[in-house]
Please model this.
Amino acid sequence: MAGVDVQDVDVHVSDDEDVELWLDYKESGNDVMREKLILKYARFVKFIAGRMAVNLPSNVEYDDLVSYGIFGLMDAIEKYDPDRKIKFRTYAKTRIRGAILDELRSLDWTPRSVRQKARALEKAYAELETTLGRQAEDHEICEFMNITQKELQKLIDDTKKSLMISLDDGDSDSDGGGSRHDFLEDTGIGSPETLAEKIELKRMLAQEIASLSEKERLVITLYYFEHLTSKEIGKILGVSDSRISQLHTKAVTRLRGKLALLLH
Model:
């Protein structure tokens, strides 16, 4: 998978810089102004594609993700209503993500068998690590699942497909937009019981994150809390994009398995 040059990605594109451009475009539908808007936010598409790429297998090209995302950007530009006082980036983020996901789904690379394999790996990590009382090594997982190292790596690569859909699949019709991991912080009031459950779930999640290896914990922290791309994280840890992707997949698989076991 080709990496994204983070130096070429300006995610702090101001929606306020071109208010007149937006208004003029919405009034006239001028193709030249539309092209300017596409160029203005193209780097935002690259940033989103780079964020999503960490969950994808190596045969998925970054440039393809950007191409899919551009269609989402064009759709967002057509449907965006400045009068609703919602920042364009907030609105466009879900459209861009949705366009990428739709195209990946159309390629049918997340069949049921892949999701079943992902759940089997999650369960294996959870059960073995509960027994061991520590993080399981690759060779121990292989022995537990009766598979070879090569089969494990293939399983981890396949698992990325399932994780990307489950973590990044948002509501494409939502103005607020965002992926499921964006909803972990819920500012809604809710009932006392619901709030207590969420607090306990966050406590459990924090505890399980703390139990990860140092590198896996750093990947999770930098990706979900610092919002860095795989290339940026790779530079910090001194490893390749593909290694970051593998660490991320293992970490999330461990967390999902552990939480499923605890909540069962």
Remarks:
- DSSP finds eleven helices and no strands in the chain.
- The mean pLDDT is 76.
- The chain has one domain: 6-263.
